[in-house]
## 1
Amino acid sequence: MSDDKLLVSRRNALKCMAYGGAGTLFALSGGVFTPIDLAMARAYDESKEGKALGKPLFVQISDTHIGFNKEANPDVAGTLTQTIDIVNGMSVQPALIIHTGDITHLSKPAEFDMAQQMFTRLRTTEMHTVPGEHDTTDATVTEYFNRFGKASNNKGYYSFDHSGVHFIALINVLQFKPGGLGTLGAEQLDWVAADLKHRSASTPIVVFAHMPLWTIYEPWGWGTGDADQLMSQLRRFGSVTVLNGHIHQIVQKVEGNMTFHTARSTSYPQPLAGVGSGPAPLKVPADQLPAMLGITSVSVVKHPTSLALNDTALA
Amino acid sequence: MILGRTRMLLTGVSMLLLWGAAPWTRSTAGTTADTSKIVVKDFMFMPTPLTVKAGSTVTWTNMDDEPHTVVSDTGEFKSGGIDTNESFSFKFDKPGTYHFTCSIHPRMVGTIVVQ
């Protein structure tokens, strides 16, 4: 995609939304989820191409950072509200919501309570979460698990199936090595191996964790040190989608049958890799903020759309 | 603009305090002191390594817009999330070398030598 097209896309996205951010809709096409701007999706709903997209399977929300109140976005509750309004406004509601972590900014009980209260406004009630490193800074690492630990028996990793897709939720924010990247750890990797052992290679797999499961920028810890051991287990599957948050911007990579995608945050943007002293909140003019926040939506397509069709949607 | 100037002034004052610029807070042993301060700024702990006498209290103060934590590699101390302009303190009673990291940004590392 050329830069010109990107600019046109952003401009159209801003026209479609007053505030609250552009998102990305993923359509499963030829076994690979293909991104389409969510802002364009409403107009898309009624179009021939839109109808071919099928039912949205899930929406990914990430890095809500409830409790953050600095200059980069003094109203993260407001932008989350707008995000929820966008999801609730989708003509067909997604079956699931996935939150890829950093629900809160400082792991405070009041922040978690506020986030949970806000999530109850979602029309889609089934939500699956993984924690970010901001959710696990309390001394006992219990605030997150007290609220969201049930699905994983307080381990942080679990799997489930929906619409023929196998979902694997992983935790990579607890075992940091100083100076290093996120870590999955041997116990979790063994569990993944057992979880995948008897699954058919034709099962679409969605893996989600907070920190990127591929190294985007090691000096800032934007990666997971032992992710290669996970990928070697996933390589035999025909369709693997790896979804992460953490870096507050979209970065994508396709490698064989595997698509890697990081979601925008709903709270504040972060700089491009290596720009500035570290991954601090990026201050942008207020009118530019909405375009840098958003969500990711993933659809299963009954009749796979062509690549050309998706290019049209992005323009 | 008044707000901006105030903020700059406050930053200036706090930097002065944090860096321990006043000579009467310093002991004769150079970097060794009863109380010591580490500034957390631009995703770095400064200074590091820091040498203190046994019984000293070290205070970390976060000057970034991003929260940080201070977590001992060997489990002796662990802060919660330290937000902008907040601090965390720990008293070091036993001599030794203590390595610590920020669990939110694990590339941030520091060392305290207790004599």
Note: Strands of chain B lie at 35-41, 44-46, 50-52, 56-62, 71-72, 87-92, 96-101, 109-114.
## 2
Amino acid sequence: MNIVAGLPRSSRLFVLILLLTGLVIGRAQAQNSTSLQQADVARQQSVAQGAWGSNVAKEDDDSTTSAPAAPTMAGDEEYGEQRILLRKASWAPWSFEADIETLWTDNVALSSQYMEEDTYLRTGFRVGYSNRVVGNLFFNASWDYHTVRHNEYTDLDFDLGRGDIGLMYMLPKLRDTFLVTRYSYYRLAEAGFGNKLYDDHVASVGLQKTWKISRGQQIFAGLYADWSTAPEPWAAGRHEYSLFTGWRLRLTDALSVQLSYRGARYQYRTGERQDWNHVMLASASYNITDWLRAGVTGSYTVNRSSGAAFDYENFIIGAGLTAHFEF
Amino acid sequence: MKTQLIFSSIVCWASLSPLPAATVEAVKGGASAKAAQALPPGSSFATKRSSQSQIKLEKGFVRLGSNSQFQVGKDDQVNLRQGVMMVGSDGTKRRGTVKVTAPGYNFQVQGTALIAYQPGSYIKITVLEGTIRVALQSLLGEFETLEAGQMLVINPADKRLPDPVEVDLNRLVTTSVLTAGGALGPAPTDPFIQASASGQGGDVNDGLVTRTPFSLRGASPEVTVFQLVNDLSNPNAVVREKTYDGNHNSLSNVTITRQGAKTQELKVNMVSQIENDGSTTLPSIGGNVTVSPDVFGGAPQKLTFIADDSLMVLPGANISTPANTALELDARTLDIQNATLKAGNGRQASEALTLSAYGTESGNEFDVNVKGSTLEAGTVKMQGSVFGGGSQRIGIDNSTVTAPKGITIGDSGTPTTITVRNSSQLAALAGSIKFDSGGRAIMVDGSTLRANATTGQIELDAGETGGVLTLRNSNLNADVIKARGHSASGDAVIVDGGLFVARTVLKFYAAGASMLRFRGNVVIDSPRSIFSARTVQVDLGGTVTSTGLVDIFVNPGQDNFNKPGFGTISTRTNTIPGGTAPNVIPYNSPDRPGF
């Protein structure tokens, strides 16, 4: 049963926005294992895809150094002389990423009662710039465009454009916690560069931190507040207050897995609706080459709203490929 | 049926018969097995003194240096026991993997690596070509993949893996006995090794990689680079001086020991090195550099490092001498950053630390540069030299200098600019502090100078016909404080804020037709202070507050304080009933005390 096609335009829009949230969250969390440690998994794809903080993470290496005192052994000199070299650090501030992912969901319309499954294809690209401004202050900007095409419920197809610009500051006195501020613009449109369905300007501030257990194993957590400033239509706008935490393990140079959770409070601008949203995610990614990786993901979302009609549960699994270039 | 039986027999034989996983290919010198002998899984192989061997594995090879040992494990695995070895994997496009283990560690070699293992002390891995994955067995996810040129030195006591450093492959390949130049000849993977070295050399030429003066010799992270060998065989004899000419460009983690007689003074000559590309590598000292107390005999005892060019004491360096032994660094210029220099126990006058520059380096801010460092000795002396043209610059930046018996910077015969800044602390708690710039400028900025409070003196002398003395937001504490500068017409002494505690007397003298200028809030805690200048001025908004009497020798009419447009000089005694205002006395008064 196509439960969407028969809806009036305003209701369809609402469903699409709900879908956008679900898809973005699913996509964002499935995207990249470094994502959760660095950013708001729900709304900031640029962060989720690793641009935010990736430059700082390289400096956040608190691994130990070793200079043991040791006796010499017979044959010691046969090893040879080791003259120490210094290699210039190279930082590529620009990045380009293109991805394609197919996903299955058991609740395509995020409905509380009539759950319908569907598969959909998500494709798109992202261009990012990230660099140090001075000292511990970093600048980030990105533009992202993605399309979502459903197999059955084509009325729910949409295009999403998004721009981010922000600053990130490392706080050494708080054990290298990162303070993030960001402005984002969202534009949701009908499929195929169609009419605008929704747009918003969002201001965000957050704190995020990573604890390294070992070189390839870490726990991360963060707090974010995202304020919707100019939603169009107004009723679809909402503020989000979220926290996230997770665990990431790099099993080999190529293979890593991740478990994470995000909990958020959504306050809609109309004041009539408030939601609690919980997302649990498991993902794995495999680097096929230096620039191409494959990933699989599974997420489970529970949404509880002040309006019972907006309660839903949603399970998504997917697999995809991502090409990533830095220059 | 018969065919089936044959196949079953073959399978059974194959599964039960131990296939030799390794075979000895070559033995130079002595070893526990002969050439062509098979080494089944579980067997060990060891080399003897001055020997090298090569063992063929199913997917690679192992070369062992002298007194080295390993055990052949299952599946082509190499279990390290001790020594120096090269491990390589076969293959061209798709490299095989040789698994290597040491207690607590796993290595996967897809290329060629030099490995040194001293049980309980260290493991050192250097990748010559390809990659090697190093993993800590005890911690999930604690692994790293090293690439060609990268080296890892692991302390088994560490709970995490250290960061790798990059080393010069050309230098390593030409000096290691296990590579092409050794008795075993080129390794099976030698073309790959040469290609990696060549690639790195290209990066050097392209400026992507630069050589540092820091190098290690041999496998051990801490090596005795040389032993003092005196001519006298009597171990109880003492020679007055011994010079060691080892042509050392760098010393790192060195303990100097002795053979033969003792010496009173040991001089270590260090030299700069011309590289193939024409660049010069300056001599340097890094890591822990110490001398066995047994090296020295008689008195006075001294260790001197002499460099033919600028000498760099690298970050983290720790140079020390035994008790009652002085330490001197003598070079064209000295660059000491984030290092520790300690002479003896840092208490006796015999434990002197001397830093001496005999030249200048125009590209550097200072010729004796002590930054972020700790100097500790009975006495500390820093000086330039007229033999190098004079005009050296001494800088102490964010450093601590502790010398109970006294600190001397500069001398009257050598014009030397002196700068102490950025929270530096100089303490001579049983003696005095003297800056003598030989007529050049002196600057003390945001720092603390502390001499003995009852007998010590702080004397900062930019000369009677010399340079400007500037004291800014600094804290000076002594029995007597004397500060003098000179200018033909402008500011000779500038005191900009700060606290001055002098138990007996404080003197600020501006020589020449010049000015003693105060700015900011200056606090003086002394029973008597003497200001002497043709012009004494307190800039508007500034205050000079003294707890005791202040005598000001100044040209009449050029007392620019305590009147409109200028700041104030007040004594605490004249701010209470019965107190005394500063005494303003003509500059030419015969009562003016000498500096």
Note: Chain B touches chain A through 75 residues (CB under 8 Å).
